[in-house]
Structures are given as structure tokens and as C-alpha cells.
Specification:
The complex is a heterodimer of chains A (305) and B (323). Chain A has 305 residues and is α/β, with parallel strands linked by helices. Chain A is built from ten helices and twelve strands. Chain A is globular, with a radius of gyration of 23 Å. The mean pLDDT of chain B is 85. The chains are: A alpha/beta (305), B mainly alpha (323). Chain A binds chain B through residues 28, 62-63, 65-69, 82-83, 86-87, 90-91, 93, 95, 97, 99-106, 110, 113-115, 117-120, 123, 159, 162-163, and chain B through 4, 7-8, 11-12, 14-15, 18-19, 22-23, 97, 100-111, 316-321, 323.
Chain lengths: 305, 323
């Protein structure tokens, strides 16, 4: 008997959540990989999960992708329970693992046809679908190439095309940029921006924090299976106090640091220093903005909670 | 079946067949297999011919013997090669997907574990079907020489295919149960060896027990041989329970001894006396289901017993990530 879909939960800011977890826990023997994780991924968001190796990112993704049963807690993905209604979830979810496995002796278009068939996409839609996907991931010229002959960047893009072969609402991307060269990374980022524009909700993990800061609308920081912080990048950076600081170096060799909220405050500070302290010549005036890496280090070191 | 229908019916099978058809290994294996069978056929013919020079059989009996010897040697070679080849082909089916990290993307699709399992088994069996069908003309030679009926040939090929399919089920099951390809391959070979050699050990044990109890029932001893694929193929080839000098003679003689019962002294092939009475003993006829069918049924039971936990291992979500 089909289990009726639950009404979509809401994230903290009132946006409907496409993915929601409550008290999600996973224990392997003595190791607690996830510890009462509460997450809400709003619809249409690019939601980045940050955490060191072993933080529980891949475990979370494996549970949400219907691969792993949690020890306790619940998860809702696109209105369905990944444990009790895995097929419902799979129809609306595209999962891209961190490593793209490669089939030997299979062409790029055959690879996508295989997965289209596996998702039950009607045969008469394959041609148009595969043309569109290959164009989207910029692999249309590689249609007849063997999958195992592609470069790593191309394989990652093909893996993304595979995850989208059934036009899912949600994409779960586990370390999609790992192992890519800078150019391939930029191309991948642009591709994700395009997907967001197409209305996809994207749940992504990455070690390259600067990248997440650039592409994510929401971020969660987890460590040792626990959620340390969640919110928009601005909200989280705001927890550091002012994320912008002006560092001033004077001619006498002294240095001073001042919090500045924005460029107006920055200009006011400079004016004040010039007028109120005329005897001290300024050699250098530098504005430092805290980024996700600072935030991550501070959060995981327990400075910000 | 068109590629289109197959692609929709079982995408895993379609993909596997595409990949295998492009593999040079398949062509090489097929060529070597046929070359080996032709070589065995030739040697069997030469061997039978030389033996015939020293015999006093009439010409009809001679051709019958030559034809049957050639038939049994080719069949036995097919059996040995397939039993050697199938674990190697099938044990990497799922474990190899794990090694290549292609299993997880497959598990998150709408394809169920049974469909994945069947696709893998049928793909492995498909290659075996190709080998057996390609070698059918070689079996036609002994048929033309004489001594075997068309029914013998058809039945033997059908049993060979059935055994191939069941061994593929066992191989793919090992592939699902064990994480690594090497472990799965070792386990699959161990299973095949257990069926072949373990059944002989079982027979010996039962013979000792039977002898010590003075029991003269036929069934318990032959039962031990049921899991043995060579019993099925030897019986399907015909004339089991009768004297033989071909490659199936060891298993045929074991069946014959079991049919004669314990405490019976074999004087010559097919001729036995009871040492207590000094009278000649006739082999007891087996009634009911033929031996090849009994043997296949036991192998089906073994294959199913392995396939059930194997399919469970393919299910997602799991308590632990297998991939």
C-alpha cells in the first residue's frame, strides 16, 4: 500500500523544505557518524554542507539517497521517507557520488540511455533528453566517445548529466569538484548556477570552501556528526561579529584593527583616522573580509557556537 | 528480441551484452573453446580407432563405440571448461561494479535488486549459451558416426545449458555476497569444487555408513552424488548405470556400484557377485525421475539458497554501505 506523502516541512525562515531531517542518527558499532542531525533544505536552494573528513557528510547523503538506513531519527526527501518509500524518493532525486564509476566499452550516449532506461524514462523521449543533457554539460561533441576515454572533468560532468536523466527536483552532489583542475572547477560552478536557474534544489558538499561560498544560498557546518551552524552565508558570517575588518599600519610601526560593517563605515574610519590622528601617518589601510574558511576554522574550533 | 525491447525490459542485461560483444576476450575465449573441442574430438576419434584395431567387435558395434566415446569426450570437455570458466565470468558481475564504483548509481535508480541480479545472471549465461550453441556442430560429428541418438544430443546440450545457468547463478550470488572481486571469484570456485568433489566425499562417507549398517538400499548413496554436475551430464549423455570406458566411466561406475548395493564384489565392469551366496547380482533399476533431473533439482536448490541472500545484499537502503 502506498504511504501518503507528508506535507512539505518548512525551513527556519518559512521557505518550504525539500529535504528535512529530524534527530537523524547513524551509529556504526562504537562510532556515531551522525548525532541527532536536524537539517532543512529549502526548495530552490543551493545548500552546501561543510565538514572535515569523517564529519558525516557522506553518511547524510547516503541516507537521503536511499542507500543507508539511519539508526534513529527521520528524514523526508521530496515529501517521501527514504527508508519506507525509496522508489518515491528516487523518482525525484538525482545522486552524484564523489567518485564516478566508469563502464568499459560503452559510449557516452549509451551510458545515458542505460540510466534513462533504469529510471523508466519512456524510450521516445531519450533522444531529445540526451541531446539536451549533453548540451547542458557541454559534452555534445563527445556523444560517440567511449566513457572510459573521457577526462576526469568530463566524467564529472557526465556523472551530473546521469544524475539528471530523469529530471529530478533535487540533486545531491557529494564532493563534485574533487580532483578537478581549476578550469574544470569553474566550469562546474557555472553549470551548477545554470541548474539553480532551472529551478533545481542542490545539496552539495565540498572541501573547497571558497567555492561553496560563491555558489551556495545556504550552508550547514557539521563536525563529528553534529550540526554546528546552519543558515545563509551572510547569517553565518555575521556570527563572527563583523566579517569585515580594517587593518591599519602606521609609520611608527604600530598596527591597529577596526571592525567595519560596510564600505561607508570603511570610508568614515579612514576619514576619522586622517582627521583625529594627524600626527600618525598611515602607511597601509587594508580591509580583510572573513570568508568561509575562517568561519569553518572558528566554528570547528569551538569559537563560534 | 530487439535491442530496444531488451533495453526497456532489463537495462542491465542490455548493457552487459553490449559491453561483452565489444570485448576481445569473448572472441578469444570462443575461439579457444572451439579449437579445444575440435582437438578433443580428433584425439577421441584417433584413440577409439587405435583401440578398435585390437578388438574383435563387429563393425557396427565398433562405430557405435567410437561415436559414443567421441560424444562423451566432447561433452566432458565442455563441462570441465564451462565449470572452470563460469565462476571467472560471473563472480565479477556485481563485485566488479562495486570495485569500479558503478553499483551505487545503479542502486539509486528504479531498477530493483531482482532485476539487477537477473540481468547479471542472464548476461553471464548468454555467453555460455553462445559457447554451447557454437559448439553444437562439433557434437553433430559423433552423432553422424553413430552410437548416440538425437535425443541424447539435445538432452545433453539442454542439461549443459541448465548447469551453466545454475553455475552462473551461484557465481553472481557470490559476487553479491562478497565485497571484492577476488574473494567472490574464490568463493565461486570453492562452491563449484564443493559440488563436484564434495559430493564424492559425501558418497564415500555414506558408503562407509551404509556398509557398517549392512544396509542395501540404493538411494542414500546415490543421493550424495546429486549435487555433482557431472552426474547430470553423464546421465543426460545416456547409458548411465551401464559399463563404460569413456570420460564419464568413474561417475558411471560409482552409480553402478551404488545400484548394485553394498557388500557386492565387482568382478568386471558390469559383472558383480554377492560374496555370501556366490551368485551374480543385477544392478537395481532406478524408478521415477531420471538422475539428471534429480541432480539439476539439487543444484537449483543450492543456487536458490545462495541467490536469496545475494538479492538481499543488493537491496537499498541497507544497514551498512556495502559499496
Amino acid at each position: 500500500m502506498a504511504v501518503p506523502a507528508a506535507p512539505p516541512p518548512e525551513s527556519a525562515d518559512g521557505r518550504p523544505a525539500l529535504v528535512s531531517t529530524r534527530g537523524l542518527t547513524k551509529v556504526y558499532g562504537r562510532l556515531t557518524a551522525l548525532h541527532h542531525l536536524d537539517l532543512d533544505v529549502p526548495q530552490g536552494a543551493v545548500y552546501g554542507i561543510i565538514g572535515p573528513n569523517g564529519a558525516g557528510k557522506s553518511t547524510t547523503f547516503a541516507i537521503l539517497s536511499t542507500l543507508l538506513k539511519p539508526t534513529a531519527g527521520t528524514a523526508t526527501v521530496c515529501g517521501a521517507d527514504p527508508v519506507r518509500q525509496p522508489k518515491e524518493v528516487r523518482r525525484r532525486l538525482g545522486y552524484m557520488p564523489d567518485v564516478m564509476g566508469v563502464y568499459e566499452r560503452l559510449r557516452v550516449d549509451e551510458y545515458l540511455q542505460f540510466h534513462a532506461a533504469a529510471y523508466g524514462v519512456p524510450r521516445n523521449q531519450w533522444s531529445e533528453l540526451i541531446d539536451g543533457l549533453l548540451e547542458l554539460v557541454d559534452l555534445d561533441v563527445k556523444r560517440d566517445a567511449m566513457v572510459d576515454s573521457l577526462s576526469r572533468g568530463m566524467k564529472q560532468r557526465l556523472s551530473l548529466a546521469r544524475a539528471m536523466v530523469h529530471d529530478p527536483d533535487l540533486l545531491i552532489l557529494d564532493e563534485p569538484a574533487s580532483g578537478l583542475d581549476p578550469r574544470a572547477r569553474i566550469e562546474f560552478r557555472l553549470l551548477l548556477a545554470e541548474l539553480q536557474r532551472l529551478g533545481k534544489t542542490i545539496l552539495i558538499s565540498s572541501h573547497i570552501l571558497a567555492e561553496l561560498q560563491q555558489m551556495c544560498t545556504d550552508i550547514a557546518v557539521i563536525e563529528a556528526g553534529k550540526l554546528l551552524a546552519a543558515g545563509t552565508p551572510a547569517e553565518i558570517l555575521g556570527r563572527l561579529g563583523s566579517s569585515r575588518r580594517a587593518t591599519v599600519r602606521f609609520l611608527d610601526g604600530t598596527e591597529a584593527e577596526y571592525p567595519v560593517a560596510d564600505e561607508a563605515e570603511q570610508a568614515a574610519l579612514l576619514k576619522r583616522l586622517m582627521t583625529e590622528e594627524p600626527g600618525r601617518d598611515i602607511v597601509e589601510f587594508k580591509v580583510v573580509t572573513h570568508d568561509l574558511e575562517d568561519l569553518f576554522l572558528q566554528i570547528t574550533e569551538g569559537i563560534v557556537q | 528480441m530487439s535491442g530496444f525491447a531488451l533495453q526497456t525490459l532489463n537495462p542491465v542485461l542490455d548493457r552487459e551484452l553490449r559491453q561483452r560483444s565489444r570485448s576481445r576476450r569473448s572472441v578469444v575465449l570462443l575461439t579457444l573453446f572451439l579449437a579445444l573441442l575440435i582437438g578433443v574430438l580428433f584425439l577421441a576419434y584417433k584413440g577409439s580407432e587405435q583401440t578398435a584395431q585390437f578388438g574383435a567387435d563387429p563393425i557396427t558395434a565398433l562405430t557405435v563405440r567410437v561415436g559414443r566415446t567421441m560424444f562423451e569426450w566432447v561433452l566432458a570437455t565442455q563441462m570441465v571448461v564451462l565449470l572452470f570458466m563460469i565462476p571467472g565470468i560471473s563472480a565479477g558481475a556485481v563485485a566488479g561494479e562495486r570495485d569500479r564504483q558503478t553499483l551505487v548509481p545503479l542502486q539509486v535508480t528504479l531498477i530493483g535488486p531482482v532485476q539487477i541480479f537477473l540481468g547479471k545472471v542472464l548476461a553471464s549465461s548468454g555467453f555460455i549459451l553462445l559457447l554451447v550453441v557454437a559448439s553444437a556442430p562439433i557434437l553433430a560429428v559423433p552423432y553422424l558416426v553413430g552410437g548416440i541418438s538425437l535425443a541424447n544430443v539435445v538432452r545433453a546440450l539442454a542439461v549443459l545449458l541448465a548447469i551453466g545457468f545454475l553455475m552462473a547463478v551461484i557465481g553472481v550470488s557470490c559476487s553479491c555476497i562478497f565485497r571484492r572481486t577476488q574473494t567472490a571469484t574464490l568463493a565461486a570456485y570453492a562452491m563449484v569444487l564443493t559440488l563436484v568433489l564434495g559430493s564424492l566425499v559425501g558418497l564415500a562417507v555414506l558408503a562407509v555408513i551404509d556398509g557398517s549398517r549392512g544396509n542395501d538400499t540404493v538411494e542414500p548413496r546415490i543421493v550424495a552424488l546429486y549435487p555433482n554436475p557431472f552426474l547430470a551430464i553423464a546421465d543426460a549423455a545416456g547409458e548411465i548405470g551401464s559399463p563404460s570406458s569413456g570420460p564419464f566411466s568413474p561417475i558411471k561406475n560409482l552409480v553402478l556400484e551404488a545400484q548394485l548395493g553394498p557388500n557386492v564384489q565387482m568382478i568386471d565392469r558390469g559383472f558383480a557377485i554377492d560374496p555370501n551366496t556366490g551368485e551374480q547380482v543385477e544392478a537395481k533399476e532406478l524408478t521415477g525421475m531420471p538422475l539428471w533431473a534429480r541432480s539439476l533439482l539439487v543444484q537449483v536448490a543450492v543456487a536458490v539458497a545462495l541467490a536469496v541472500p545475494a538479492v538481499r545484499r543488493l537491496r537499498a537502503p541497507q544497514r551498512e554501505l556495502v559499496a
